[in-house]
Amino acid sequence: MDCLFCKIAGGEIPSKKLYEDDSILAFYDVDPQAPVHFLVIPKAHIASCDELTEENSAIVAHIFATIAKLAGELGLKDGYRIVNNCGKDGGQTVGHLHFHVLAGRSLAWPPG
Question: I need a surface site. Which of 25, 35, 37, 43 has the fewest CB within 10 A?
C-alpha cells in the first residue's frame, strides 16, 4: 500500500514519535501549525472517518483517551484542539484516519 501514514506507522519513514503502542502512533507534525502540533493515527489502515464501523470504531476511543493522557503529560492545561479532516472538501490530504492535536497558543474560531 502506498500510504504515507502506513509507512510512518511501519517504520519505513522516520517520525518524531511521541507515543506508540500496538494499535496507535502519535508523532509530531513536520509542518506545525501551533507551538504544539502532533498527530495520532491508528496503525491499521482506515482511510477516513467514513470507514469507521461498529467493528473498528473502538480505536477512536483509544486515540482520544491517549490524547487526554498526552495532553496531561505535556502540560496543556490551557487547552488544546483536536481536528479530524474527512474527505477532500474537509481538508483531508492524507488518506489515513488521523487526528491533529494543536496547542500552545490561542486558537481562533471558526478555523477557516
Answer: 35
